[in-house]
Amino acid sequence: MPQQSKRLAVIFSDASRSAGRYFKSFAGSDTPISPLNDSDAIIVPSLSRTGTAMQLPDFREEYGCGGAVISAVPLCHGIAALTGLSFVCPEGATGEKDTSYENKLQAALDILEEHDFAAIHVEAPDECTHNGDLPGKLQAIEWLDSRVVGPITQALADEGTDFRLLILSDHKTLTSTRGHDGDPVPYLIYDSRTDTHNDLPYTEEAGLKGPFMDNGVNLMAALFEQD
Question: Which of these ranges, 15-19, 162-166, 191-195, has the smallest mean pLDDT?
């Protein structure tokens, strides 16, 4: 076993023993095990075998341009890195309703000064739904519209820049269950060069009237007019 692996094994072994002593201290007592405080943490890793990193297609090779993902969520940072994109977590980006929409917007505009692609990820509607916060969810969606979509569309139009904009959710999150759902989600592709005279709003009901795409990956090809 490599020396680094031995050191990791010792660390994980010590962590497992410490966790075992923690839970054992409650055995035979009347003290219930309650949720940990925010300041507490117990990590019990289990290493059964080594693995390899996921491989994703290179974004530039697939679509002919580079760019960055703006998000507070580490998962999105990882996906960006695996596709060769940069990632940015602006100041004030929290992944919650109180995130800094304005800083995310500015980060996107800065990226588009040098690149042809920027993705803004907003986690707030999803998190509010998981928390059962319907008013918060509605507020987050309204702010996404008024503080991100509207301003970035106006800013690019004021510059006289031709652009295409894709708006969608990565999945549904249902208020009734506070969980994710696998049903299709509506998407919107806007092209500043074309007036389709389509006045439909961006809603689930309106989405049913548009073209159906059975593989979400193909949306990127549609955005870059490769279809």
Answer: 15-19
DSSP assignment, residue 6? H
Lookup result for tokens 């507490």: 40
Yes or no: say if 125 and 99 are a contact pair by the CB < 8 Å rule: no
**Each residue of 35-82: pLDDT tens digit?**
444 444 444 445 555 567 788 999 999 999 999 999 999 999 999 999
Asked whether the beta carbons of 102 and 88 are under 8 A apart, the reply is no
CA distances (Å), origin 178, targets 37, 72, 97, 160 = 23, 21, 16, 42
Q: Concatenate the DSSP letters of all residues of 156-173 into one string.
A: HHHHT---EEEEE-SSEE
CA distance 126 to 171: 9
Name all contacts of 179-182 with Cβ < 8 Å and 24+ positions apart.
Answer: 179/130
- Cβ atoms 134, 175 nearer than 8 A: yes
Q: How far is CA 135 from CA 123, 138, 162, 190, 226, in A?
A: 15, 5, 36, 28, 39
Angle between helices 150-159 and 101-114 (to 10 degrees): 30
Radius of gyration of the chain (CA): 22
What is the pTM for the complete model shown?
A: 0.76
- Angle at CA of residue 65, ends 60 and 68, nearest 5°: 90
